[in-house]
Amino acid sequence: MNRRDFLRNSAILTAGAAIFKDYPSFAKVIKAKGEPNIRIGIVSDVHFDVRDADTADTFRHTLEYFRDRKVDGVLVAGDIADRGLEPELQLFADTWYSVFPGDKRPDGEHVEKLFIYGNHDVNNWSSIRDSFEDKAQYSVQHISEHREATWKRCFKEEFEPITFKTVKGYHFIGAHWCDGGSIDGLAEFMGKHHGKLAGEKPFFYYQHPHPKNTCNGPWAWGQDNGTVTDILSHYPNAVAFSGHSHCPLTDERDLWQGTFTSIGTSSLRYQYPIGARENQKVDGGPQEKSEMPEMGTGDGRQGMLMSVYDDCIAIEKREFVYDEPLRESWIIPLGVSGTPMSFEERAKTAQIPQFNPLDKAVVTRAMGKDRQGDEHMQLTVHFPSVLKSTHGVRAFDYEVQVEARYVDVIKSDVTKRVYSPKCFLGEKHDSGEVICVFAETELPLNFETRFAVRPCECFGGKGKPIYTEWMPARTLKK
């Protein structure tokens, strides 16, 4: 790398660091760069259902936003039809053509369809099949029975299990859902196009499940079996997009960089924050007893706008219910050695959230029911939400610990993590108090106790705690 390229890329990295702190900085940097080489709208997990008019309205509104930003293509990373029925796919297509008639913007420029099937589109769900009294009607309507013909009828193009499209000189490879956790024939397909893909210029790959152990880490629900990660690892210029997990774009781990770059696209229908929190569950995994209901995320409908320049990729994260940007957007530098956007590198510079000096944590006691419906005495810890607007940086979640006083030693007995109620939205919707609930029986017997609360960021950093008052020792009544 020559000195000129070094200075250019150093400036991008510096701008990127500022962007993590200040969304307007992102807008300022992008405005100064001028028109991008290509602009792509990105969503996933739309889950169209003909019984739900809100889904079509949200998708139309999202497309109108992309249209007004003059996108060159729209990428949809699977799960278009919620129940895998052709009428759902057709409604999606009708909505598309109502905004982009003939696949064109109002100025006549072509807008490329970068769509793929997800598991909801083509899996033959027994629960859906059993709900049809007329099984012959189900066979006609369900996409899995005739996925190629359905695709051609709805989108006016031939169906290919793996697609290769070029938009303004940039290559896009889309792989439809395959059962078994891998993409059949992908290695051979990549080999066939290797000459076009190798080099420094980025190309874009999209599939429904996350490539294993990339975006959102090893904890993300619904990853593939790892073969795609191995294949893309030979292409450091690959940028992969995937959905399936519904992980909100307020989680910075949606962007992973290692041997290639992998980005989670969230969902345009509802959000699913990573589990193991008191107000969230682990989907498909072991369930611990929880004292709180699962958080509602139905108003979390999110997507991205990608702008590609010669020296960087800019990703704007947005939600389409309140029409607001989500957390800090990303600038991914191109032509820079190493992995500046890796979890490890970003953890080094991540701002640690902190409570303000006057913030307090208090406890209330009352009878209540846990998530399983059992009623018993509960202790609820109340504390303020840590936000960028009020505290300088927004917390990702919170650690709440029970501390017991053993003579002159304080020990932690129980630890829980909890999300703020609207952690998946813009922070102005998340300014209310945060609570974490404990069963009274979770506190140790015969020792004074209190609660310690720490705000956390997603890469592992924790702020200083605030404490509740000490509570008298709990004893068993005779």
Structural overview:
With 478 residues, this protein is an alpha+beta fold. The chain folds into 2 domains: 3-349, 4-Layer Sandwich (Purple Acid Phosphatase, chain A, domain 2); 362-467, Immunoglobulin-like (Sandwich), CATH 2.60.40. It contains 13 helices and 20 strands. The protein has helices at residues 3-21, 23-33, 53-68, 86-99, 119-122, 126-131, 135-141, 147-155, 186-192, 194-197, 227-232, 343-349, 388-391; strands at residues 38-43, 73-76, 112-115, 162-167, 170-175, 203-206, 238-242, 255-257, 261-264, 302-308, 312-319, 324-325, 330-333, 362-369, 375-383, 397-406, 409-418, 434-439, 449-456, 466-467. The strands form 4 sheets. Strands 1, 2, 3, 10, 11, 12 and 13 form a 7-stranded mixed β-sheet that branches. A 6-stranded mixed β-sheet has the order 4-5-6-7-9-8, with no helix packed on it. It has a 4-stranded antiparallel β-sheet with strand order 17-16-19-20, with no helix packed on it. Strand 10 (302-308) and strand 11 form a beta hairpin. It is globular and about 75 Å long. 43% of the residues are buried.
